[in-house]
Design a protein that fits this description.
- This is TetR/AcrR family transcriptional regulator.
- GO terms for molecular function: DNA-binding transcription factor activity; transcription cis-regulatory region binding.
- With 200 residues, the chain is mostly helical.
- The protein has 2 domains: 12-70, Arc Repressor Mutant, subunit A (Orthogonal Bundle), CATH 1.10.10.60; 76-193, Tetracycline Repressor, domain 2 (Orthogonal Bundle).
- It is built from 9 helices and no strands.
- It has helices at 12-31, 38-45, 49-55, 59-73, 83-99, 101-116, 118-144, 154-172, 178-193.
- α1 packs across α2 (38-45) and α5 (83-99) runs antiparallel to α7.
- The longest helix has 27 residues, at 118-144.
- The relative contact order is 0.13.
C-alpha cells in the first residue's frame, strides 16, 4: 500500500513522470477509469501531449505505470521483532491507505478499472504481488523460528491480513478503523498458527 504524501526526487524526466502520474491520479479520483484520457492528463500535468503519448501510448500503460509507482513508493516492511507486531503494522498501513480520502478513492477507481479491463487487472495483480512479496519475509522468519508450522505459505498469510479490510472498504461499509486492522492481524496470526495456511 502507498502512504499518502510520498514524493519521488529526480531530474527532469522524473519530474515529468511524477507530474503525469499525479495528474492521472487526479483524473482517476474525479472521473474513474472510463474518464481517463491521455490528452486530459497531459493538460493537467502541464506537459506536451506528444510527451505523454510517446512515453505511455495508452491509458492501460499509464495505469500500469501508476501502479508500479505506487508499489515502489509504498512504505517498507516493518521489523517489529514479532509476527503479530509485523502483521499489525501491515494491517495498519492497509487501513490508513484505504481510509485516506484521496488514496481510498484512487484504489476504488483502480479496482473498478480492473474489473472491466484485463490490462488494468494485470497491472493491479502485479502491484499486489509486489506488496505481498515485500511483507512475506516476516512470515518466513516466523516459520524459521518455529512460531508457525513448517510449510506455511507466507503469501497466503499476508493476503489474509488485508482481505477483511478490503471487504469493509468495498462491500460491507463497516468501520475501517484501528480495531478492524488489529482484528485482521490477530485473526491471520491465529489461523496461521493453527496451520490454516500450510501448503498441501
Amino acid at each position: 500500500m502507498t502512504e499518502p504524501g510520498t514524493v519521488r526526487p529526480g531530474g527532469r524526466t522524473a519530474r515529468v513522470r511524477a507530474a503525469v502520474l499525479r495528474a492521472a491520479e487526479d483524473a482517476l479520483v474525479e472521473k474513474g477509469f472510463d474518464g481517463l484520457d491521455l490528452a486530459d492528463v497531459a493538460r493537467r500535468a502541464e506537459v506536451g501531449k506528444t510527451t505523454v503519448y510517446r512515453r505511455w501510448g495508452t491509458v492501460a500503460a499509464l495505469l500500469a505505470d501508476l501502479l508500479t509507482d505506487m508499489a515502489e513508493q509504498s512504505s517498507p516492511r516493518a521489523e517489529t521483532g514479532s509476527l503479530l507486531g509485523d502483521l499489525r503494522a501491515n494491517a495498519g498501513l492497509v487501513r490508513r491507505t484505504l481510509a485516506d480520502p484521496r488514496q481510498g478513492a484512487l484504489f476504488k477507481a483502480v479496482i473498478i478499472a480492473a474489473a472491466c479491463d484485463e490490462r488494468a487487472a494485470a497491472a493491479l495483480r502485479r502491484f499486489y504481488r509486489t506488496r505481498i512479496a515485500e511483507w512475506a519475509p516476516c512470515v518466513e522468519r516466523a516459520v524459521a523460528q518455529g512460531e508457525l508450522p513448517a510449510g506455511t505459505d507466507p503469501h497466503e498469510v499476508i493476503k489474509a491480513v488485508s482481505a477483511p479490510l478490503y471487504y469493509r472498504f468495498l462491500a460491507s461499509g463497516d468501520p475501517l478503523d484501528e480495531a478492524a486492522a488489529d482484528l485482521a492481524a490477530r485473526a491471520a496470526v491465529a489461523a496461521a498458527r493453527a496451520g490454516a495456511y500450510v501448503r498441501p
